Amino acid sequence: MYIVAYICTYQILNIVPYIVDGKLEVVERILRQAELGPENLQMALRFMIRATIEVKIFNIAYSSTSYLTKVALLCTSITGIFTGTQYFALDPKFSLAMLFFGYYSCVIFASLYGRAYVIPLKFDELKRKLTLATEQCRRSGRDSQGTLYAQKLTRAIPPCGVRAGSFYILDRMSTPSFLNFVCYQVCCLFLTVEK
């Protein structure tokens, strides 16, 4: 069980730098070149398509694990923070341990999924740059067939991002929404539970 959790955590932490700083950085370097031709555009498109496929494979393999991790961290953070503050007068050692456990769960969520939104943003930015580059190549008249093909491929690249479950793509608001939900639920528990 722990080995599976370790491998999943390792993969989740490594997918964002691998895709953004590895694959998509190469595409950005290609697009920064002064002389862009159809060959360079098609090479950039190959890297974009490869990155899209790798994100899809990651989602197929780890989206359910990401969702379960998110729900587990949600439950442990709410339970830990509520128990740690509510029962501090009865057992301070236990309450401090639970409070630490709750805050630690929030920190783990932020470190695991805090930068997952970078992948869809970077994909959208590079698709825009690729569209502009193919349009400029087409206007300059260099290999209109290859440029037209590159333009069609650019439009065909689907939007992608890291998924948590089969229905939820982690975006920029995932971590703040998670923390907001934890605070809201802990406050609701304080209001409903008598000491």
Describe this structure in words.
- The protein has helices at 2-31, 38-86, 92-113, 118-140, 144-156, 174-192.
- The mean pLDDT is 81.
- With 195 residues, it is mostly helical.
- Helix 1 packs parallel to helix 4 (118-140), helix 2 runs antiparallel to helix 3 (92-113) and helix 2 (38-86) packs parallel to helix 6 (174-192).
- Helix content is 80%, strand content 0%.
- The chain crosses the membrane at residues 71-90, 96-118.
Distance from N terminus to C terminus (CA atoms, Å) equals 37 Å
- Quick one: overall form? elongated
Q: How many helices does DSSP assign?
A: 6
Q: What order do the SSEs take from the amino end to the carboxyl end, as H and E?
A: HHHHHH
Class of secondary structure makeup: mainly alpha
Secondary structure tally: strands: 0
**Beta-strand residue fraction:** under 5%
Helical fraction = over 70%
Tally of discrete structural domains: 1
Calculate the mean pLDDT score and round it.
81
Largest sheet data: none
Low-confidence stretches: none
Roughly how many Å is the radius of gyration?
A: 22 Å
